[in-house]
Each structure stands twice: as C-alpha cells, then as structure tokens.
Amino acid sequence: MNKVIVISDSTCDLTSKQIEDNSIKIIPLHVIFPAENIDYLDGVDLTSEELYKKVSQLGCTPKTSAINVGEFINFFKPYIDEGYDIIYTGIGSGLSSTYQNALLASEELGKDRIEVVDSQSLSTGIGLLVLKMCKFRDEGDDVHTIASKVRKLVPLVSAKFCINELDYLNKGGRCSGFTKAMANIFSIHPVAMVTNNKLSLYKIIRGKYRKSVDYQLKMFEEDYPNIDTSVVFVTDSGHMDGENDYAIEQLLKYVPKENIVHTVAGCVISSHCGPKTIGILYIRKPKEE
C-alpha cells in the first residue's frame, strides 16, 4: 500500500501548526485586484489584513479565482512520482470551479492514485474534513478508504457565519444594493450558512452584532448532544472587537479548551465576507453513534 499525502487549498483556514503537525500540503487560490492587475496567491503573497488595507486604498474588493488544472497537475505530480497516493479536498464545488479542476487533474494523472473529495463547504468546514483525512491516514487506511469515510462526513459539517456588514458581499455581487442598504438602516447582522453546497443568508438578526453571535451559540447548544467535540473551530476574519473571545468563552461551557481551535480566515474567504465575520464550525456525529 502506498503512503498517503493529504492536500487541501488555502480556503481551509487551518492554523500553521495544524498544517505542519499533520504534514498537510496547501495549494493557494488566487486573489486579484483589477485596479492593480496583480495576481496574488492567497496566504502566500497577501494576508487578510493587507487585503483590507488595499480595499480601503483602492475603493474596490478583489476578484478571486480558482486553482486551474495545470496548477493542480504541477502540484500533484511530484508526490505521485515519489510514490504517494493523494487525497485532496478544498472549497466546495458549488462555490468554486476548483473542485472540478482538481478532478480533471486527477483524471490526467491517474484516478487510481488520487481521490478528490467535494467538501461542499468552505473555510474550516473544509478544515474539519482535512483533519479527519489525517486521522484516517495515521490509522493506516488507504487513500480510497479514507475518501469513502470522509464523504460520509460531508453532510454532517455545520458551517455558519455571522456577518457584520454586507458591503463586501454587495461589491462582490453576492447581495443587492437594496439588501445592503436595508441592512445598514435597520442594523441587520445576518447569519449565513453553507447549505446545498452554497453559502446563503440563513437568519436575519436585528440589533447589536452580539445578538447574531448569540444566535450561533444557541444553535450550537441545540446541536450539542450530537456534536463531535474532538475539534470545534472558531474562525474569524479579523477586526473582531472581542467577539471571538466571547464566543470561545461561551463554548467552554460545553467543549474542553484544548478542543476549541481559533483560526483566522484567509484572503479568499475575507474577500467575500469582509472583516468582523465569525463562524462556529463543527461536525455532527453520525446517527449510528
């Protein structure tokens, strides 16, 4: 049986320690500011904080683009040549063409050696699946068994986010100017959720931002008996004014401190959601458990 290498893309938002400790390989997506005509690699050439500064300076949000087939082939091939089998998951197929391009690359290099799993998620919703891949790899499973096990977990991932303001979604064409204006007028802080392989507005919360964080925490509490608490992510896009600390403090009522992992979203996620976005992400237990 060949050794297995676990690969994800830059939208998985894992910490550098998690990536290093689990020998995960990361391939970056692209972030492009049309006004500059510069193609930045997410997390390599540009951080989220630098992205926000550019948005302020240039007056526009960037475009993001998928990893193309050639990039995947160039990234995968050295590991195949070294005798590894590859398992990859990244941003969901409903959110980017990255998944389809990875699939085409695997067909070019040999599908018997590469498994491509559709996360149907984003950010640490992907990261949760990547960590499970590493767990199954370390337990000695082959690449096809790992893929089969992880695909069963995909529908069990919960990925929700509180969004502070809709400017970035509006500039990126993901919400109308009218919706943005109404959100500003009525102090609306929506909760978005990944469902059916899409990120959509799930609940409209009026009032202070803390109320939308509390709504996420309430949903976590309701789900708690069915949650795999081995890893729970609190992932934010920066400029949180203490809301990330508050969320973690509340989660400590249910989850051991060492099992709560705080991460910061990369440039692709931040490009679409903007600053002061926070998510509580976890996997539900399979029914048989």
Structural overview:
It is a single chain. With 289 residues, the chain is α/β, with parallel strands linked by helices. Helices cover 39% and strands 25% of the residues. The strands form 3 sheets. It has a 6-stranded mixed sheet with strand order 10-9-8-13-11-12, sandwiched between helices. Helix 2 crosses helix 11, helix 3 crosses helix 4 and helix 5 packs antiparallel against helix 6. It is globular, with a radius of gyration of 19 Å. About 3% of the residues have low confidence.
Describe the secondary-structure layout:
Layout: E1 4-9, H1 16-21, E2 24-27, E3 30-33, E4 38-41, H2 48-58, E5 63-65, H3 69-81, E6 85-90, H4 98-109, E7 114-118, H5 124-138, H6 143-153, E8 157-163, H7 167-171, H8 177-185, E9 191-195, E10 198-203, H9 209-223, E11 227-236, H10 243-251, E12 260-264, H11 267-273, E13 277-284
Helix pairs in contact: 2-11, 3-4, 5-6, 9-10
